[in-house]
Specification:
The structure is a single chain. This protein has 2 helices and no strands. The chain has 63 residues and is mostly helical. It is elongated and about 45 Å long.
């Protein structure tokens, strides 16, 4: 699937955010903050999927 630079930018930003949250979760494993961070990472994955699918639906280059 061919995608535009904006799609790549969106995906990169979300993946970076998710990576930070998962790293925090692993670093502080067992704490309430780690659990919260893991949940936020899962929610960010869902937001990323929604944002990317919405982009593909609207973008003439990607869709």
């Amino acid at each position: 699937m061919r995608t535009c630079h904006y799609f790549t930018t969106i995906r990169t930003q979300y993946e970076r955010e998710i990576g930070f949250m998962l790293a925090h979760s692993k670093r502080y494993e067992g704490s309430p903050a780690a659990k919260s961070s893991a949940k936020r990472a899962a929610a960010a994955k869902q937001r990323m999927a929604r944002a990317l699918s919405g982009h593909v639906g609207r973008c003439p280059e990607c869709g």
